[in-house]
UniProtKB/TrEMBL annotation:
Family: Belongs to the enoyl-CoA hydratase/isomerase family.
Gene3D superfamilies cross-referenced by the UniProt entry: 2-enoyl-CoA Hydratase, Chain A, domain 1, Lyase 2-enoyl-coa Hydratase, Chain A, domain 2
Short name of any one Pfam family annotated for the protein: ECH_1
Species this chain originates from: Arthrobacter psychrochitiniphilus
PANTHER family (alphabetical): ENOYL-COA HYDRATASE, MITOCHONDRIAL, ENOYL-COA HYDRATASE-RELATED
Keyword field contains Kinase: no
EC number: 4.2.1.17
Name of the featured protein: Probable enoyl-CoA hydratase echA8
């Protein structure tokens, strides 16, 4: 498929989506959201892809939703178009999704990174929800995902003041999984994705679903969800293979990878 604002490629079993709107610091227009969703869904549907990486440039992962595109919209325009709904759909993609973030990840850019399953950040990454300075609030899940990721005190401070957080603070706060030098960012993210993609894809999907259940349910419901998930694993050939390989002291040769 030909996209206008993103680049896609497949390296081994990893799908790579690169935001490619440098003149606007990867501001997330409606078209860009639809392209990202379409690309992620295509990788999700491909059994040959076991993990997806989404990245931007060294200067900006994404500097937010496209302010110029939104500025003149009315509330009714947004209701009728179900504005931002592509991002809810992106969160429903089942293949593990890693955000490799360098530079600005502001507003919608920070929210997109948080829609990913985890973030690997370059040392120059900057995270923030500056919407309040524009007279609005986060609209792609930021008020919810940031609060769950870093807790109320820091999330409230960031959402109310628009303060930007550097990579090290973001790591200490639990927003990012790991900080790496900028030159190593893509390589580290691709390697991590390749590790995930070497596992059984259905089992990785079940694992992702189980961790995500922690954000959407009570502890008891989440544990029940997990229990059903692990029982489902025992219905796969890959569970039999993984455990046989351990017993036979050899690497597992998963069928679904
Ligand atoms: C549209 C954007 C943009 C954005 C940058 N640009 N961010 N265009 N939407 N979110 C454009 C600029 O207009 C400029 O275009 C070009 O990208 C380069 O940006 P500069 O500002 O010249 O770069 P710099 O001085 O390096 O500053 C970088 C920056 C700044 C600090 C990231 O661009 C900035 O503050 N951007 C906005 C960040 C923000 O507020 N994000 C939240 C958006 S709201 P020209 O044509 O002038 O060269 C959001 C959620 C909305 O995401 C949900 C509720 C409705």
């Amino acid at each position: 498929t030909q996209y206008s604002l993103i680049l896609t490629e497949q390296r081994g079993r990893v799908g790579l989506i690169t935001l490619n709107r440098p003149e606007a610091l990867n501001a997330l227009s409606d078209t860009m959201g639809r392209e990202i969703l379409a690309a992620a869904r295509a990788f999700d549907a491909d059994p040959g892809v076991g993990a997806i990486v989404i990245t931007g440039s060294s200067r900006a992962f994404a500097a937010g939703a496209d302010i110029k595109e939104m500025a003149s919209k009315s509330s009714v325009d947004m209701y009728l178009a179900d504005w931002f709904s592509a991002w809810d759909e992106l969160a429903r993609v089942r293949t593990p999704l890693i955000a490799a973030v360098a530079g600005h990840a502001l507003g919608g850019g920070c929210e997109l990174a948080m829609i990913a399953d985890f973030i690997i950040a370059a040392e120059n990454a900057k995270f923030g929800q500056p919407e309040i300075k524009l007279g609005v609030i986060p609209g792609m899940g930021g008020s919810q995902r940031l609060t769950r990721a870093i807790g109320k005190a820091k999330a409230m401070e960031m959402v109310l003041t628009g303060r930007v957080m550097g990579a090290l603070e973001a790591e200490a706060a639990g927003l990012v999984a790991r900080v790496v030098p900028i030159d190593a960012l893509l390589e580290e993210a691709m390697e991590t994705a390749a590790t995930i993609a070497s596992m059984s894809k259905p089992v990785a999907m079940i694992a992702k679903e189980a961790v995500n259940a922690a954000f959407e349910s009570t502890l008891a419901e989440g544990v029940r969800h997990e229990r059903r998930g692990i029982f489902a694993c025992f219905a796969t050939e890959d569970q039999k293979e993984g455990m046989a390989a351990f017993t036979e002291k050899r690497p597992a040769n998963f069928k679904h990878r």
